[in-house]
Write a structure and sequence with these properties.
This protein is an alpha/beta fold and 201 residues long. The chain has 6 helices and 8 strands; from the N terminus they run E-E-E-H-E-E-H-E-H-H-H-E-H-E. A hairpin with a 2-residue loop joins strand 4 (67-72) and strand 5 (75-76). Helix 3 crosses helix 4, helix 3 packs parallel to helix 5 (152-165) and helix 4 crosses helix 5 (152-165). It is globular, with a radius of gyration of 17 Å. The chain binds adenosine-5'-diphosphate and magnesium ion. Residues 52-53, 98, 174 line the site of magnesium ion.
Length: 201
């Protein structure tokens, strides 16, 4: 196949997002057009409230645009059945949430393992993947801790490990280094592969 025939991993055309309540309509995104190729590393910067998290939620299939179109690997997302959206979220997208979203009553190890369990991965492979990704972020020594027993920066590193353990094609990170010291921030930045996008500030 010719390189020109490869569709962008992500293509948005005229994407808007309006949050409507009884009282007000909040226009979070106004006609976003963007194309991101495989292997590209994109940062989105802007003041708080400008719509970065909203855009990442749409890119991560956690929310849908009000208007406009989103093609993921050349496929129109709006036409994917719910089961296929769930499969894509689990297999192809790694999401590091601004608030980490770790599960409080699961250990560090179990938090990183859970998305792999959902895929039906065998226990031995899960253990290898979880251990390797915790080592990558320097958190292997805290595998048996609960999230509440960690600092903010450590929780963030676990969230990074969970997102990369599944080797996603797309890594979406919402303010991924906000709680990290500069050394571990750099470490996780260079640990990325494939196509990744991140929002900062
Ligand atoms: N669920 C929601 N309901 C109503 N308004 C929302 C919702 N989520 C976000 N917004 C509004 O959309 C705008 C963009 O929010 P957000 O994407 O979180 O910004 P950022 O991540 O850039 O700080 C803000 O004005 C926010 O108040
Ligand atoms: Mg945000």
């Amino acid at each position: 196949m010719n390189a020109a025939d490869v569709p962008p991993v992500i293509k948005l055309e005229g994407v808007t997002k309006v949050f409507s309540t009884d009282e007000v309509d909040t226009h979070a995104l106004a006609t976003v057009d963007v194309e991101i190729a495989r292997g590209e590393y994109v940062s989105i910067a802007g003041p708080s409230g400008c719509g970065k998290s909203t855009l990442l939620s749409i890119l991560g299939l956690l929310d849908s645009p009000t208007h406009g179109s989103y093609w993921l690997n050349g496929r129109p997302v709006a036409e994917l059945p719910a089961s296929e959206r769930a499969r894509v979220r689990n297999r192809e997208i790694g999401f590091i949430f601004q608030s980490f979203n770790l599960i409080g009553d699961l250990t560090v190890f179990e938090n990183v393992e859970l998305p792999l369990t959902y895929r039906g991965m065998r226990a031995t492979e899960r253990r290898e993947r979880v251990t390797a990704s915790l080592e990558r972020v320097g958190m292997a020594h805290r595998a048996k801790h609960l999230p509440s027993q960690l600092s903010g920066g450590q929780q963030q590193r676990v969230a990074v490990a969970r997102a990369v353990a599944g080797e996603p094609v797309i890594l979406l990170a919402d303010e991924p280094t906000g709680n990290l010291d500069s050394r571990s921030g750099r470490g996780s930045g260079t640990a990325r592969s494939g196509s990744s996008s991140r929002a900062s500030t």
